[in-house]
Amino acid sequence: MDLTAHWVGMTSLVLFALAYMAVIAEEYTQMRKSKPVLLAAGLIWALIGYQYTQAGISQVAEEAIDHFLIEFAQLFLFLLAAMTYVNAMSERNVFNALRSWLTSRGFSYRNIFWITGAMSFFLSPLIDNLTTALVMCAVVLAIGQGKPKFITVACINIVVAANAGGAYSPFGDITTLMVWQRGLVEFQTFFALFVPSAVNYLVPAVLMSFAVPREAALRSATDEKTKRGAKRIVLLFVTTIVTAVTFHNVFGLPAFMGMMTGLALLKLFGYYMRQTSGQLLTDGQQSQSVGEVTPFDTFREVARVEWDTLLFFFGVIMCVGGLGFIGYLEHMSAYLYSDLGATTANIIVGIASALVDNIPIMVAVLEMNPVMDTQQWLLVTLTAGVGGSLLSVGSAAGVALMGQAHGHYTFFRHLRWTPAIALGYFLSIWVHFLVNARFAT
Q1: What does the domain layout of the chain look like in residue ranges?
Q2: Is the pTM of the predicted complex or chain greater than 0.85?
Q3: What does the pLDDT look like over 431-441, one tens digit per residue?
C-alpha cells in the first residue's frame, strides 16, 4: 500500500520530524535522544497497523516489523559486545594512562594538536569515533588549561579526525558497520577509503594548525597507571575483532556471533580475575595497589553500556523503516539515484548528515537499497561518515564534545572552520574517484 499521500503517511512524517527536532535539541532540553524516537516509532507503526488492519492485511505490517527487528537485533548484539569491551578498558584505566603519558611528556601545544588528531584518526577504526573523541578531548582539556583558543581548535581537529578515521573501518562508525553487515562492501574493501579519509582529516588539520601556538604545554602532575589485566583485555578485544571478521568472511555467519563469542572470552577472563584477585593480597604482595587488585566484574561493564544510544538506534531503525514501508523512501530513491545520479546523490547524503545525524541518513539509504557498484557504496560510506564534521551537531563525536568541552567547543566556533572542513570533504571525494577507480563497474 502506497500511503505517501494518505493522512497516515503525512502524520508519520510530522511525527518523525518532531522527534528529530527533539533529538537535535537534546543539548538544551537535557532529554535523552532515545525517548522521542522510541515514541515516534511506536506511533508510526500504530498508524500503519491501523490502516493495514482496516484493509484486512495486518500480517503484512507484522512481517515488516519482524524484518526491521532482526536488523536491529544484529546491530544491538554487535554493539553490546564492543561497548562492554570499551567500558572494560576504561575501568582498567587504559585511557587514563594514555592521557597521563601524553600530558607528562612536555610537548608543545602544536605537538599535542597533531598527536591527538593522529591518534583520533588511528584509534577510531578500533574503538569507534565517539569513544575516541571523548578520550582525546580529555587529554586536550587537561593540557590546555588557560588556553581556550587551543582547546577550541584541538576539539574541532579531534572531531574531524575521529569521523575521518571511522570511515575506513567497519568498526569505526555505526554507518560503516551497517554497510558491512548488509554485505554490500567486503571487510578488506573498506580500507580502500584510507587515503580519501586521510585527505579529509589532513587538509583542515594543516590549515587549523597555524592557529595553534608553538609554546610548550604544561606538564601533568599525576601519573596514572593501568590496572591489573588491562593489557590482556586489550589483547582479547583485538582477538574479538578478528573473530568477528572470521565468522563473517570465512564461515558466512553474521559478525555479531563473533563479537558475542569474544564477549564470552572477556567474561571468562573476568571470572579468572575475580578468582585470583584475593590471592594478590594473601600471597604477601602488599606492594600491589588497591586498583590492581580491585575485582573485575564484566556484568558491571555490561550495565554501564550506553543504553540510550542503543535504544536510539532501535527507534531510528523503526522510524525510518516505517517511512520506507509507507513508500517515501522509494520515491526519494527514484529522485536521488535515478534523476540526479548516484554520485550527486551520495554527495548530498554526506551534506545532509551534517544537518541530520548520519545514522538515520544511512538507514534511509540502506532501506532504499539503490543499485550501485562498489565504488559508489564506498563513496556513500565515506560521505556519510565524514559529512557530519561540517557542523558540530552533525556527528555523535561533535555533540559529545560540545558537552565535554562546554564553553570552549561550540556550534559557532566550529562553524568558523567549516570552509576548511568542506575543502577537505570535497577533496576527499575527488581523491576517492582517483584512487578507487578499480571498484567502478
Answers
A1: 7-439
A2: no
A3: 999 999 998 87
